[in-house]
């Protein structure tokens, strides 16, 4: 689970690789499946899917809980309404929680 969160975070740590409003986009900004080889940007959820090969459920639940703890909203809402730095904070807390468990 921690490995998935780290890989997902690394996938979108550069803001140019992060998107809002859908799971992933191709180089033209078109919506695309997060696991498609043409995906170039991902939302927090899409990054978890892409990093895990669709075995994202546990990692996503920890990330969602971290987002709710920090911002009072789930990660999908956070991703689509807040800043990239806020999404990174949620990932950091989720990864930290994995170290404690």
Descriptive account of the structure:
The chain starts with a helix and ends with a helix. The longest helix is centred in the last third of the chain and has 17 residues, at 84-100. It has helices at residues 2-12, 44-52, 57-71, 75-81, 84-100; strands spanning 24-25, 41-42. Helix 1 (2-12) crosses helix 2 and helix 3 (57-71) packs across helix 5. The protein has 5 helices and 2 strands; from the N terminus they run H-E-E-H-H-H-H. It has a two-stranded antiparallel sheet. It has one domain. The model has no long low-confidence stretch (mean pLDDT 95). With 101 residues, it is mainly alpha-helical.
Describe the structure using short key phrases:
101 residues; mainly alpha; two-stranded antiparallel sheet; 5 helices; 58% helix
